[in-house]
Fold:
Amino acid sequence: MARPPSRRVRSLLGAALAVLTALAAVGCGSTESSSGDDRTLVVFAAASLTESFTALGKTFESSHPGVSVKFNFAGSSALAQQIVQGAPADVFASANPATMATVADAKLAAGQPRVFVKNRLEIAVPPDNPGNVRTLQDLANPALKVVLCAEQVPCGGAATRALAAAGVKVRPVSEEKDVKAALTKVQLGEADAALVYRTDVEAAAGKVRGIEFPEAAKAVNEYPIVTLAEAPQPDLAGGFVRLVLSERGRTALTRAGFESP
Amino acid sequence: MPAVRTRVPGRVPWVLVLPALAGLAFLVLPLAGLVIRAPWATLLTRLGEPQVWDALRLSLITATAATAVCLLFGVPLAWLLARITFPGRRLVRALVTVPLVLPPVVGGVALLLVLGRRGLLGRWLDAAFGVSLPFTTAGVVVAQAFVAMPFLVISVEGALRAADLRYEEAAATLGASRWTTFRRVTLPLVAPGLAAGAILCWARALGEFGATITFAGNFPGRTQTMPLAVYLALETDPQAAIVLSLVLLAVSVIVLASLRDRWVNTP
Structure:
């Protein structure tokens, strides 16, 4: 306690200032670089499209020099809310027609949304399958820790439909905020099973095991895509939607585990 | 210690008042937005839903429990940092603030890696005692305490360092042991700082979202606290989210205002 505290406080303040200055510099730098001649296409897409759309974005960039594609991947409903609240975006791809309707109802879709893929649920379990899960009916076992998506997000809606179709009652330990959060719980071994999309199992190859179940056919999600009415880059947006709907786009998406519409 | 109020004579310096008012507006305007946009017409029916009260009750219980945990471990930690010289103290002090800079979601993942069913310690807890923290109310308390403890430690440590050491020295010369000194002299001396720290800690725990949803998951009545309920309501029904936010705000403002007047001597 020999040192007067004021010096320490001053040096701390100095350090904080230095960090703030550095941050400000970085912030300015990034805005300057994006306001040059280069154009940026902004795509809002469902979290389950993360891997396949990132790859398609690269394809689009290589065929459109000077264009960079920026993605905002999140739960479809959250994205729809952001768009309705005025977030600047060119393209919206959602994981179910209901969330797309939120955007269309607000007159923010340019033209009719088009379904470009379908996705179905699988049971994801840790690679060693500690709960010994084989069928959807197994999830009713109260000793198992089962994680579902919250009903408010598309994967939760699909899970509810599939479980209802099978007449299975599941008491989940958690209702997760999006499909990736549900998958994480299985990857870390905290949950014995989760209902996630087949594409998520595919993307987490090796870290989780996927188990197909027949009732999934009763809860297939359709993914619509649309160019947004207030798109800053409408021509690029149209180009990207065409790429997604093209043969090339379809190949990339089916490779990721999606089904053709 | 009675607060001595002195008035410095002279004009009110606008160079301080203007930014102060701007700062106040910045903090209060979003709040006003919530109040203005609230669906007042349907407020009562929305408040009638039992999920709201489940989440509120859970939030109040867990935030209070988390504050108790933080007091139990945080006050001794603050004392250690302020009063005992040991090698690496600066590093320890920096480590204590890590949860402040860590994004809470990352904190939640870190907690899972340590206390999860397959975590470093959690595996052993599960095998030896059958205790598994994720997806339980206790898990919510753990997540909140992790994120909120630095606020308490920093406040208490600051108060300890500012406290006059001569009182403790006097107690020691009169034959008091270090524990007695801590209990009878140091704690009363830093009580205002302690109270302020506890309030900060409680408030942070009450608003905790990221670490909670990651570590404890989301299940109504068990781990779904108000911030989690707000987040999920926002997905489909922003109006319901506003109502929930208002309830949380109202309750926390009432609690904090009443505690502040009682414990913290703010003039």
User: Anything to note?
Assistant: The CA atoms of residues 82 and 161 of chain B lie 6 Å apart.
